[in-house]
């Protein structure tokens, strides 16, 4: 089935980045109609949009009037994406103005609508813009948080258009959910940890693990697509920032603990998808440890790292917050993967535990995953092998149900 995407482009310098977003939609087989504003055409001309989409482009309601484009485009869309969405466009959408083809399309669309704002920091932070964003979110639109970084000129701050590839992934998540694409996390603040921590032996060597961060990033992206305010605590991950997500970067388990505990103080849910190192050296050499001439290896004394999951589960800063842990197990003489998972769930005190069988290195670095989600109340959900995004949405489904409780 062909997915009909309307790509609205408003008049900001980031309009040129929407060309990359358009390319990703078309190369994925989607039928894309580009609806730019007149101001957007000052930045990127109509021939560019027509060539990339394979369709004629206009910003006027008077073009092809017999086809009633100001009604038909929105009515037949499966998703409308406005990228970039300027402060002016957000204001018009929030107040129901309809003075061009794009604003008319927004009023007639009955499908999911995603806004990817881009503007200067002061404009984004202005109370009027924030009120408009709140209004749109209340009505069910997904308004992505802008990224931080270099803006027009020498300015730097929050207001940069998120990476087009990440906007595409977020929109794909909205489309994949179909009729279930509700904003059930709207108004919720969530924390997700991702990646693997490093414990340094000296300036160049460390103890670490194989976690890629892919599952944690999928969880953050999925939460943002469902309307949540997301803080992603990222440990040594080389992936682009998910669209609409605030990222805090850490290296060690101690840094991960501090960042998670700080963010959890105002969170409705914390999902610990990161793989913290269980042990760290009792001492870190200030200089690189040299090889011994006699071939002997240095003795390294280790101590346990703090148990972050147990701490935030047993000492919840926010009453009613949902805590989710992960268990990468292989099974041993003491029990099966699920036996060890159930024991860990009871020991840690979290509400949900996502159990992965990682025998033979499965899961690490893969785009797919399979798991069993165990609940403290005894329930369990088996998630067959599929994308890590699909697993992420199952996890958020379970979290959302516990909010309802």
From TrEMBL:
Give the UniProt keywords, A-Z: Decarboxylase, Flavoprotein, FMN, Ligase, Lyase, Magnesium, Metal-binding, Multifunctional enzyme
**What are its cofactors?**
Mg(2+); FMN
A GO molecular function annotation here is: phosphopantothenoylcysteine decarboxylase activity
What Pfam families does its record include? DFP, Flavoprotein
Against NCBIfam families, the record matches this protein to: coaBC_dfp
Name of protein: Coenzyme A biosynthesis bifunctional protein CoaBC
Query: What is the UniProt remark on how the cofactor binds and its stoichiometry?
Result: Binds 1 FMN per subunit.
Q: Which residues form a coiled coil?
A: none
Q: What EC number(s) has UniProt assigned to this enzyme?
A: 4.1.1.36, 6.3.2.5
Per the UniProt record, the source organism is Nocardioides potassii
Residue numbers spanned by region Phosphopantothenoylcysteine decarboxylase: 1-189
Q: What does this protein do?
A: Catalyzes two sequential steps in the biosynthesis of coenzyme A. In the first step cysteine is conjugated to 4'-phosphopantothenate to form 4-phosphopantothenoylcysteine. In the second step the latter compound is decarboxylated to form 4'-phosphopantotheine. Catalyzes two steps in the biosynthesis of coenzyme A. In the first step cysteine is conjugated to 4'-phosphopantothenate to form 4-phosphopantothenoylcysteine, in the latter compound is decarboxylated to form 4'-phosphopantotheine.
The entry assigns this protein to a family as follows: In the N-terminal section; belongs to the HFCD (homo-oligomeric flavin containing Cys decarboxylase) superfamily.
Q: Where is this region: Phosphopantothenate--cysteine ligase?
A: 190-405
InterPro entries cross-referenced by the UniProt entry: CoaB-like_sf, CoaBC, DNA/pantothenate-metab_flavo_C, Flavin_trans-like, Flavoprotein
Q: In which pathway does it act?
A: Cofactor biosynthesis; coenzyme A biosynthesis; CoA from (R)-pantothenate: step 3/5; Cofactor biosynthesis; coenzyme A biosynthesis; CoA from (R)-pantothenate: step 2/5
Q: Which residues form the Flavoprotein domain?
A: 4-172
């Amino acid at each position: 089935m062909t997915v009909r995407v309307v790509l609205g482009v408003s008049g900001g310098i980031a309009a040129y980045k929407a060309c990359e977003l358009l390319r990703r939609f078309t190369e994925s087989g989607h039928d894309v109609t580009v609806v730019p504003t007149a101001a957007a055409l000052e930045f990127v001309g109509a021939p560019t949009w027509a060539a990339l989409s394979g369709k004629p482009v206009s910003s006027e309601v008077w073009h092809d009037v017999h086809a009633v484009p100001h009604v038909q485009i929105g009515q037949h869309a499966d998703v409308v994406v406005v990228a970039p969405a300027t402060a002016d466009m957000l204001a018009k959408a929030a107040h129901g103005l309809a003075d061009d083809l794009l604003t008319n399309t927004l009023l007639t669309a009955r499908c999911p609508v995603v806004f990817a704002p881009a503007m200067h920091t002061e404009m984004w932070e202005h109370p009027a813009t924030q009120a408009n964003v709140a209004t749109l979110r209340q009505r069910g639109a997904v308004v992505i948080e802008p990224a931080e970084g270099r803006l027009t000129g020498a300015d730097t701050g929050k207001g940069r258009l998120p990476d087009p590839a990440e906007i595409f992934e977020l929109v794909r998540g909205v489309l994949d959910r179909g009729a279930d694409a509700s904003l059930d996390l709207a108004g919720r603040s969530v924390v997700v940890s991702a990646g693997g921590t490093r414990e340094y032996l000296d300036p160049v060597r460390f103890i670490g693990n194989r976690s890629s961060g892919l599952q944690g990033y999928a969880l953050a992206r999925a939460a943002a697509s469902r309307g949540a305010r997301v803080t992603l605590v990222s440990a040594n991950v080389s992936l682009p920032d998910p669209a609409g997500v605030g990222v805090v970067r850490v290296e060690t388990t101690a840094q991960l603990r501090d960042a998670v505990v700080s963010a959890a103080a105002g969170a409705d849910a914390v999902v610990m998808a990161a793989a913290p190192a269980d042990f760290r050296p009792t001492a870190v050499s200030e200089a690189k440890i040299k090889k011994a001439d006699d071939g002997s290896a240095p003795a390294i004394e280790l101590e346990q790292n703090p148990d972050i999951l147990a701490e935030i589960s047993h000492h919840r800063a926010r009453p009613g917050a949902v805590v989710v842990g992960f268990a990468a197990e292989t099974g041993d003489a003491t029990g099966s993967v699920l036996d060890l998972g159930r024991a860990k769930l009871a020991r840690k005190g979290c509400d949900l535990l996502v159990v992965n069988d990682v025998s033979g290195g499965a899961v690490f670095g893969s785009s797919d995953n399979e798991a069993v989600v165990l609940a403290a109340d005894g329930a369990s959900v088996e998630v067959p092998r599929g994308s890590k995004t699909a697993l992420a949405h199952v996890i958020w489904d379970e979290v959302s149900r516990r909010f309802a409780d």
